[in-house]
Each structure stands twice: as structure tokens, then as C-alpha cells.
Amino acid sequence: MSAAADPSDLLGIDEMLTDEERAIRETVRSFGEKRVAPHIAEWFEDGHIPRELAPELGELGLLGMHLEGYGCAGTSATAYGLACLELEAVDSGLRSMVSVQGSLAMFAIWRYGSEEQKQQWLPEMAAGRAIGCFGLTEPDFGSNPAGMRSSAKRDGDDWILNGSKMWITNGSIADVAIVWARAEEGIRGFLVPAGTEGFTARNITRKMSLRASVTSELLLDDVRLPADAMLPEARGIAGPLGCLTEARFGIIFGSMGAARSSYECAVEYAKTRVQFDRPIGGFQLTQAKLVNMALELHKGILLAMHLGRRKDSVGLTPEQVSIGKLNNCREALKICREARTVLGASGVTLEYPVIRHMNNLESVLTYEGTSEVHTLVLGQAITGLAAFT
Predict the structure, then answer these.
(1) Are 357 and 258 in contact (CB under 8 A)?
(2) Residue 288 pLDDT level (bands cut at 50, 70, 90)
(3) Which of 45, 110, 124, 245 could covalently link to 130 via disulfide, CB atoms 3.0 to 4.6 Å apart?
(4) Which helix or strand (DSSP H or E) is residue 199 part of?
């Protein structure tokens, strides 16, 4: 192999990008390296991420960047995916802040909201002056959101919401929550501003994963909302599932960012760590590990690029998104675990990013569709037979 080969781009994937996509990627990478990377280990250890990052992300045009109008940048889906990759190369919590804001909260309003709701919230959210969260998962209903117990009942022209939501990214720092609840006519979505009487959010603590991310429980106790708080175009479970499909796309790219960071760390460590009077990168077993990591990393990025190009041209089916989410999350976690073995004991400290990425990916593997659920989605697509129950 040529000594000039780029270990992070052995297939020349960079040549597939447009000039605009490269510029966006480099802008996000520079922001991550200069603004976040020097602090992320401390934030992870302390269990927080500064809310002040949101306006900075908004100034870069990253919040809802793939949406059109209302102050959003209107980039391609592929460019958005590349941004997610660079954000998650720093930390999954950073990418989660951006993707929950843009692909769940903002997308729900952009796709299902009224013109008044869009005008009120989207420009502020795109600028990072307002933060949103997405309240779907409940303590007893994660993989089966259709079974949710949160209720929405009419009271004259108003709605009364009761229930709870769990594992909600950005929950306690959000200015508005997109809450899904069961009404008489089916599942509907509602905009619940922070400070609404009866609505509270409290942080979930003692996490060992996604520590540099705000994760909350939402409680709704006779929350009264006006009629115009409902998202008019979202009817039934298809509404929130459409948002999840949109958000899962960013994870396909993002997970490869965490994998790339761990792989690059392992490569550099292997070239400098000396045992038995030579760098460990010169031993066959270590090289085999690095090659296996490189293979899965490059295949995962190629898969992400294919799905990005397809989303930009003809669109994606939920099954195609499931292929990307299932494969890339699973392989990214394997890459991080393999990288940890290359680093040995050093791999379990926050001096290096590997254990942080590894822990984070345990959550990414599970949220927005577990590997088991995506396996069954694809199983049904292959056989025509549903095996969810």
C-alpha cells in the first residue's frame, strides 16, 4: 500500500462530494475540533452540555439545515448527513442536540404544522434562540409507541393533556415540546411551550451513556392547551413515525463519525505505542484489527452516501432507512470495541475518545428504533410476514 494512502479514506469517497458538501463538512469539522473537542471529555464526565451551544450551531446554519424556508438553510440531505458525521465524530450528544432539534422537533412543525405554527417557531429554532424536544417514548412504551397512554381530551375549544414521556433529549432545556398523545380520533401531536401550567421536565441522571446530552422525563398533569396548539396535518401513528424516519437518516451518517474517531485514534496509537521494542502497529494481530475496522467504516460510509444520494433524488423508504440504521450502528459499536482493545488500558480513560464513543453508541444503537425492531422491519420486507408479536 502506498505510504501516501489516507487511512480514513482508502476508497477515495471524498472525491464523490461536491465542493459545497466539502465546504459544509470542513466548517462543521472545524467547529467541532476548536469549540467542542477541547471540553467534551469534561462535559461528558460532569454530565452536561452547554445550552449556549445552540445559538452557535444556529449561526452555522446547522439547525434544521435540510429544511426549506423559515430561516432554514435548505441544504441537501447528503450535506446534512455529512454534518451529522462530523458532529458525532466529536460526541453523540452534540449530534443528538442538532438532530433532535432539526429532524424531530423542527421537522414535525415543518411537515405537520400550520403556517402560523411554522412562522412562530421555525425561525427561532433555526437560529438556536429556541430549543425543541420530541415527546413520544413513554416509560412503558418504547418500541411500541402505538400503545402510548398519554391522553388528549377536548374541553370546549381546548385540549387537556395527561401522561408522561421518558428519555427525551433536550427536554429540560426546551422552549417547546412536541408531545404525542392519544385523542378520541387517534394519536395527535401538540406544541407544549415550556412554562405551561401542569407541564414539567426533570433531568434523568446517573447515565453512563450520552452524558454530554440533556435527557429528561416530561410530566403532563391536566395541561390545558388552546385548539391551535395541535399539529393539524399529523393524524395517527404515521405522524411521529414519519419524524423518526427523518431523524434515523442522520444517525446513519452520525454513527460513522463516532466510528471514524475511534478508528483514527486506534491507528495513531498503534503507530506510537511501543511493546517488545517496536510499535504495536507492526504486529500482525494489530494490523488485522485495524483492517477490519477500516473495512466496516468505509462500507458504512458508502452505505450512508448511497442513501443520502437516493434521498436527494427519489427519496427513501422506511425499510431503506432501517438498513442504514441497523448496519451502521451495529458496526460502529463493533469498531469502537475493537479500537478499545488496541488501546488496552488507555482505552478506558477519557484521555482518549474511544470509551466515550463506545458508551454513547450503546444508546444510539437503541434509540429511534432498536436493532431488534429494525431487524423485524426488514424481516417483514423480505418475507411479507410481520413478526412483531
Answers:
(1) yes
(2) very high
(3) 124
(4) strand 199-203
Q: What is the pLDDT of residue 1?
A: 47
Which residue did the predictor score with more confidence, 367 or 5?
Answer: 367
Query: All 3 cell numbers of residue 361?
Result: 453508541
Residue 4, pLDDT above cutoff 70: no
Q: Do residues 194 and 183 lie in contact, with contact meaning Cβ atoms separated by under 8 Å?
A: no
The domain limits of the chain are: 13-126, 132-229, 238-383
Question: What pTM does this model have?
Answer: 0.95
**Catalytic (active-site) positions:** 368
Burial call 114-136: b when 16+ CB within 10 Å, e when fewer: eeebbebbbbbbbbbebbbbbbb
CATH class of 132-229: mainly beta
**Cell (9 digits) for 80:** 446534512
Q: What's the CATH fold of domain 13-126?
A: Butyryl-Coa Dehydrogenase, subunit A; domain 1 (1.10.540)
Say if residue 2's pLDDT is above 60. no
Which residues on neighbouring strands pair with residue 141, listed in sequence order?
138
CATH class of the domain comprising 238-383: mainly alpha
